Amino acid sequence: xxxxxxxxxxxxPVSIAPMLDWTDRHCRYFHRLLSPxxxxxxxxxxxGALIHGDRERFLRFNKEEHPIAIxxxxxxxSDLAECSIMAEDHGYNEINLNCGCPSDRVQKGQFGAVLMExxxxxxxxxxxxxxxxxLPITVKCRIGIDEQDSFEFLDHFISIVKQAGCAHFIIxxxxxxxxxxxxxxxxxxxxxxxxxxxxxxxKYPELTFSINGEIKTPAQIKEHLKTFDSVMIGRExxxxxYILYEIEREIFGTSEDTLLSREQVARxxxxxxxxxxxxxxxxxxxxxxxxxxxxxxQKGGKKWRQVLxxxxxxxxxxxxxxxxxxxxxxxx
Length: 332
What we know:
Strands 1-8-7-6-5-4-3-2 form an 8-stranded parallel beta sheet. It has 332 residues and is an alpha/beta fold. It is globular, with a radius of gyration of 20 Å. The protein is built from 16 helices and 8 strands. The protein has helices spanning 25-34, 47-52, 55-59, 77-89, 104-108, 119-132, 151-163, 183-186, 194-203, 218-224, 235-239, 243-250, 262-280, 284-288, 301-310, 319-330; strands at residues 14-16, 40-46, 68-73, 94-99, 137-142, 168-172, 208-212, 230-233. α4 (77-89) packs parallel to α6 (119-132), α6 runs parallel beside α7 and α13 packs antiparallel against α16 (319-330).
């Protein structure tokens, strides 16, 4: 097997997790307006969808989204190699292999968290992907699955996949329960175990480790960065997106003068939505659904959500009318 692979982009201290049905290209463009520097991830994309489906739809992204990583799901080395070539050809900056999703559908496809039981398969996938592309390949995993919930289990997985050349692991610091819990419940019911992730980080100082799970504030990010190389945030970035403004300011040190206010972000999205309508006949609500949380905890936030939930569905409405009416309601 290969030594640890050195194909690696500069590590961004913060990234936004791949979230199915959430982090599509419209969401990512919106998040990029709020944070110029954070690393963005696509939704999980299966190898089958790229090889047999509408690959252009799945691979499409806006140039403004860079830096951007694509998360692939699969367990066939040649299929993953083929999809890695597609990702590089389309201009992605990084490729991540999903070894953490616990859903029934993913298990039936023999990918996601169930792969942690088969590190040799993961190693073969990593080797095949790295031979096919010059992009860095990372792995996102859990700290354990079902009853296999120990440091030794995680250590065995990391050690085998490391030998295949993977130099960067993103660890969701809770185990996955493959039966009895929904994917949503798997994001909250198994307890967080940061110490185990820290222990594995200490054992492999030559590797890069990112931490994920229940991290919601810049203060928490700063604390985790004392131990880990980077931090991945998930639902908080989607449900309370203006936290990205705070992260940009406090973690990346970006001047407030160069960052956009809530109102500026909202109005910048008008032109984006107009372009998406012209190019792809995109419904307004396909974009505005990702903007619901922009005024969370702010005066008028409920009215903002109400307008975005209803007005885009009215016949003949324009993006400008939707956004301006929603902004008007936040100030009344």
